[in-house]
C-alpha cells in the first residue's frame, strides 16, 4: 500500500509521484467505464489515458511551481510547456511565466484550476509543418471530469457547464441516471415536481421545465376548465409530458371532471412523471405499449386521483385513441403532429398547441417558415400577429384534410412562445368555411399598410389598387409584397375568453388575469376602462359559450341533447351560422399599428391612452393589443390614423404645454373638425407668426427641451 511509482512526463523529463493504490483504483474504474459519443468541441479523448487528474489541473499556483522544482539544476523548465516553446529559466522568471500564461487564463471548477496546457497531448493537423506545427501545438485545456482536450476557454466553460447540468460532477464520466439527491423540487400552482439541475435546456435533459412558461400553462388550464364545465368527464391528453406538471395541475384542480393522460416517448421522462405523480399523491395507471400490459400503481381503482401515463410516440397515441382536449407542446414547431391530433379529436373538442420556434415565426429565419408552414412572411411592425395567423393557417389546413373545421378561441404571441387554442367542428361544411378564411395578405413595404387579398381566383390587372395607400403611384418600382397564406378570420372569441377569466379568478391564477382582461378588450375592440365582467347568465348562452355554429341545450351545455336528431342539429347549425354571418362586422379588426413606428419627426406624441380616446372620439373602434405594448388595434385606415396622430402631436419646442389639437396647414382633419379653406389660410398665417416668435424667444431665454412627452 505504501509503494509509490513514478510517471515521467515525456516532454520535460519531470517525475510525478503517484500512489500505487490510486493508480490501481483508476485502472479499475477505467475498465468499468462505458464509451460515450464524442463532443463536437472535443478534439481528442484517449481511451487509455491515465484516469488521474492531469498535471495542468491544480488547486494552487504553488503546486505548479512544485512540479517544476522536481527537476534538478538552477534553471527550471515549465511543466506545461515543451522545451521548444519555453526554455528552462530561473525560478522568479518561471513564476511570472506560470502566473501570466497559465494561471490567469485557467478555468475554475470546485476549487480546482484547469490551466492552459501547451504539451503535445493532442495530434496536430497533418498539413501543418515546421513552425506552423510548433505554433499550433498546445493551447488546450484538460477536462477534470472526462479528460477531454478542448482548445478554447469559452468552449471549456460550456463543456464543464454541460457536465454540471447533467449531474456529472465527479472525476469520472458517468452515463447512468442521476441520483435522486441531485433532483430539485419545484412548486407551481400547488403542484410539486422534481427536476434535474439542467431542466431549462431541452436538448440536454429528459425533464425539461421552463419557469417562464408558467403563463402558458395557466392559459391552457383555463381553457380546459371552461371545456370541463360544458361536459363531464372529458378525456384530455398532454402529448409531451416531460415532468408531467401540466397534466398534474389538470388532475389536481379539476378532479373528477377530467381523465388525464400524460404521454412521453422518453423512458427517463416517464419514470420522472410517475415519481411526480406519487409526490403529489396521485395514483398512476401505466399503459406502456412496449410492455403490452397495463399496470396500476396504487389500489387498482380508477378514480379522480388516477393519471394514465403512456410511453409512445405522440403521433401513435393520438392515432390510437380519441380525446376531447389535446395539448401539443413539442420542442420547436408542432406541425408534424397536427394531422394526428385532428384525426381522432372528438366533435366540439379543443386542440391547443404551443409553438416555440420563434426564429422562424418571427421572420428571423424566413426559409424555415417556408419549409415548415408553407408560408412567406417578412419582418413587419405586426410580426407577432403575423406569426399567430401563420400557425392558425397551418392548423386550418390540417383540420380540413380530416374534414373538420375550426373556430379560433384564443391566439397569444409573446416573447417565448405562440399559443393557439381552437375548437374542432366536424363536417365538410365547417371545413370549407374555415379553409376559405386562409388568404394572402398584400403588405406595403413603404408605409406598412396592409389588406387581405380579395376572394376569388380571377387575376387582377393592378393588385396595388386593393391597398388604401398610394405608395405605388408616388414611389418608383414595386412597393408591395404578397405574404401568406394566412388566417384572415378572428383571433379571439369573447365569450370563451370571459369564461376563461372567471376560471382564472376562481382558481387564483394571478398571472393570467391581466392578460385575459386585455384579450377580452382586444376581442371586443374596446378600451380597458369600458371593460366589465357581468354575469354569464345575462348573456345569450350560445354567444357566451364561445362557439359559433353550435347548438346549446336547455341546461346550457354546448353538446347536443340526447333526444335531438341529426337533422335538427344540422338545421340548428345552419341557422346559427347565418346569425354569425350577420354579426361578422362586429369582429375585431385585423392587425394593429405601432404608434412609435408612425410618429411624426419633430413632434411629441400624445400619451397612448389619450390617443386611444382621440381615435374613439373620431368614430373608430380602438383597443390596445397584447402583441405590442405600444400597438393600437383599430379599424381606421393608416391615413386617418396618421391624421389623428398629427392633430394631437405637439411640436418639441412647446412640449411643456398642455396637449391639445394642433391644426396644421394641408392636413386632413377627421369628422366635423375639418375647417374651411379660408379658416386654414388664416390659421396658417397666425401659426407661422406665433411659431417664429416663439422659436426666437426659446433660443435666447431657455434651453431647448429634448425630452419626449410620451
Could you please describe the fold and organization of this structure?
This protein is an alpha+beta fold and 710 residues long. 34% of the residues lie in helices and 18% in strands. The protein has 22 helices and 26 strands. The strands form 8 sheets. The protein has a 9-stranded mixed sheet, sandwiched between helices. Strands 3-5-4 form a 3-stranded antiparallel sheet. Helix 6 packs across helix 16 (494-506) and helix 16 runs antiparallel to helix 17 (512-524). The chain is globular.
In the predicted model, the low-confidence regions spanning at least 5 consecutive residues are: 1-51, 171-178, 290-302, 535-566, 576-585, 655-659, 664-710
CATH class of the domain at 184-288 and 304-454 and 477-495: Alpha Beta
- In the sheet with the most strands, the strands line up as 13-12-14-11-10-15-16-18-17
User: Number of helical runs?
Assistant: 22
Cα gyration radius (Å) = 34 Å
For the biggest sheet, the summary is: 9 strands, mixed
**Mean of residue pLDDT?**
77
> What's the count of strands?
26
- First CA to last CA: what distance? 79 Å
Structural class: alpha+beta
Just name the CATH architecture of the domain at 184-288 and 304-454 and 477-495.
3-Layer(aba) Sandwich
Helix content: 25-40%
CATH topology of the domain at 184-288 and 304-454 and 477-495: Rossmann fold
Kindly report the name of the CATH homologous superfamily of the domain at 184-288 and 304-454 and 477-495: Vaccinia Virus protein VP39
Choose one word for the global shape. Answer: globular
The percent range for strand residues is 15-25%
Amino acid at each position: 500500500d505504501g509503494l509509490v511509482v513514478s510517471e515521467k512526463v515525456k516532454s520535460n523529463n519531470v517525475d510525478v509521484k503517484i500512489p500505487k493504490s490510486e493508480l490501481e483504483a483508476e485502472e479499475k474504474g477505467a475498465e468499468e467505464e462505458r464509451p460515450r459519443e464524442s463532443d463536437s468541441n472535443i478534439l481528442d479523448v484517449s481511451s487509455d489515458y491515465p484516469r488521474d487528474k492531469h498535471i495542468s489541473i491544480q488547486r494552487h499556483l504553488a503546486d505548479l511551481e512544485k512540479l517544476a522544482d522536481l527537476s534538478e539544476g538552477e534553471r527550471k523548465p515549465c511543466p506545461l510547456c515543451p522545451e521548444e516553446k519555453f526554455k528552462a529559466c530561473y525560478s522568479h522568471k518561471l513564476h511570472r511565466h506560470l502566473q501570466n500564461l497559465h494561471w490567469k487564463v485557467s478555468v475554475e471548477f470546485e476549487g480546482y484550476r484547469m490551466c492552459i496546457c501547451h504539451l503535445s497531448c493532442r495530434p496536430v493537423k497533418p498539413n501543418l509543418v515546421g513552425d506552423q506545427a510548433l505554433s499550433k501545438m498546445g493551447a488546450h485545456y484538460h477536462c477534470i471530469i472526462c479528460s477531454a482536450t478542448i482548445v478554447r476557454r469559452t468552449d471549456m466553460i460550456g463543456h464543464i457547464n454541460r457536465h454540471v447540468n447533467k449531474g456529472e460532477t465527479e472525476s469520472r464520466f458517468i452515463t447512468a441516471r442521476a441520483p435522486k439527491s441531485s433532483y430539485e423540487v419545484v412548486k407551481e400552482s400547488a403542484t410539486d415536481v422534481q427536476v434535474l439541475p439542467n431542466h431549462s435546456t431541452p436538448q440536454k435533459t429528459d425533464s425539461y421545465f421552463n419557469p417562464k412558461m408558467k403563463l402558458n400553462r395557466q392559459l391552457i388550464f383555463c381553457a380546459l376548465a371552461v371545456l370541463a364545465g360544458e361536459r363531464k368527464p372529458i378525456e384530455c391528453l398532454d402529448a409531451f409530458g416531460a415532468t408531467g406538471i401540466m397534466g398534474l395541475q389538470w388532475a389536481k384542480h379539476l378532479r373528477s371532471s377530467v381523465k388525464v393522460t400524460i404521454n412521453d416517448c422518453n423512458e427517463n421522462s416517464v419514470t420522472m412523471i410517475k415519481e411526480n405523480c406519487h409526490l403529489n399523491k396521485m395514483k398512476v395507471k401505466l399503459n406502456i405499449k412496449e410492455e403490452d400490459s397495463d399496470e396500476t400503481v396504487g389500489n387498482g381503482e380508477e378514480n379522480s386521483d388516477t393519471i394514465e401515463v403512456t410511453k409512445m410516440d405522440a403521433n401513435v397515441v393520438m392515432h390510437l385513441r380519441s380525446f376531447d382536449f389535446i395539448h401539443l407542446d413539442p420542442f420547436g414547431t408542432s406541425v408534424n403532429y397536427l394531422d394526428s391530433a385532428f384525426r381522432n379529436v372528438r366533435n366540439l373538442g379543443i386542440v391547443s398547441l404551443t409553438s416555440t420556434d420563434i426564429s422562424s415565426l418571427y421572420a428571423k429565419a424566413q426559409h424555415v417558415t417556408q419549409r415548415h408552414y408553407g408560408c412567406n412572411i417578412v419582418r413587419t411592425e405586426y410580426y407577432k400577429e403575423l406569426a399567430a395567423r401563420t400557425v392558425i393557417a397551418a392548423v386550418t389546413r390540417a383540420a380540413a384534410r380530416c374534414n373538420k373545421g375550426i373556430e379560433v378561441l384564443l391566439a397569444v404571441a409573446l416573447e417565448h412562445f405562440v399559443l393557439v387554442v381552437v375548437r374542432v367542428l366536424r363536417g365538410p361544411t365547417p371545413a370549407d368555411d374555415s379553409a376559405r378564411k386562409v388568404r394572402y395578405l398584400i403588405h406595403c413595404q413603404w408605409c406598412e399598410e396592409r389588406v387581405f387579398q380579395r376572394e376569388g381566383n380571377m387575376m387582377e390587372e393592378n393588385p396595388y389598387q386593393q391597398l388604401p395607400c398610394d405608395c405605388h403611384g408616388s414611389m418608383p418600382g414595386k412597393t408591395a409584397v404578397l405574404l401568406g397564406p394566412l388566417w384572415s378570420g378572428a383571433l379571439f372569441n369573447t365569450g370563451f375568453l370571459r369564461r376563461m377569466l372567471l376560471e382564472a379568478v376562481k382558481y387564483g391564477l394571478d398571472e393570467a388575469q391581466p392578460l385575459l382582461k386585455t384579450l377580452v378588450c382586444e376581442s371586443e375592440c374596446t378600451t380597458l376602462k369600458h371593460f366589465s365582467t357581468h354575469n354569464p347568465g345575462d348573456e345569450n348562452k350560445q354567444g357566451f359559450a364561445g362557439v359559433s355554429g353550435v347548438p346549446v341545450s336547455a341546461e346550457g351545455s354546448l353538446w347536443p341533447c340526447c333526444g335531438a336528431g341529426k337533422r335538427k342539429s344540422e338545421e340548428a347549425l345552419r341557422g346559427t351560422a347565418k346569425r354569425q354571418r350577420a354579426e361578422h362586422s362586429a369582429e375585431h379588426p385585423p392587425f394593429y399599428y405601432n404608434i412609435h413606428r408612425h410618429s411624426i419627426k419633430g413632434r411629441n406624441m400624445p400619451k397612448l391612452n389619450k390617443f386611444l380616446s382621440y381615435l374613439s372620439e373620431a368614430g373608430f373602434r380602438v383597443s390596445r393589443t397584447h402583441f405590442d405594448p405600444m400597438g393600437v388595434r383599430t379599424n381606421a385606415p393608416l391615413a386617418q390614423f396618421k391624421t389623428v396622430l398629427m392633430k394631437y402631436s405637439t411640436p418639441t419646442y412647446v412640449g411643456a404645454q398642455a396637449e391639445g389639437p394642433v391644426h396644421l396647414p394641408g392636413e386632413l382633419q377627421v369628422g366635423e373638425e375639418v375647417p374651411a379653406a379660408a379658416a386654414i389660410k388664416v390659421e396658417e398665417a397666425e401659426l407661422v407668426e406665433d411659431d417664429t416668435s416663439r422659436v426666437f424667444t426659446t433660443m435666447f431665454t431657455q434651453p431647448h427641451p429634448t425630452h419626449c412627452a410620451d
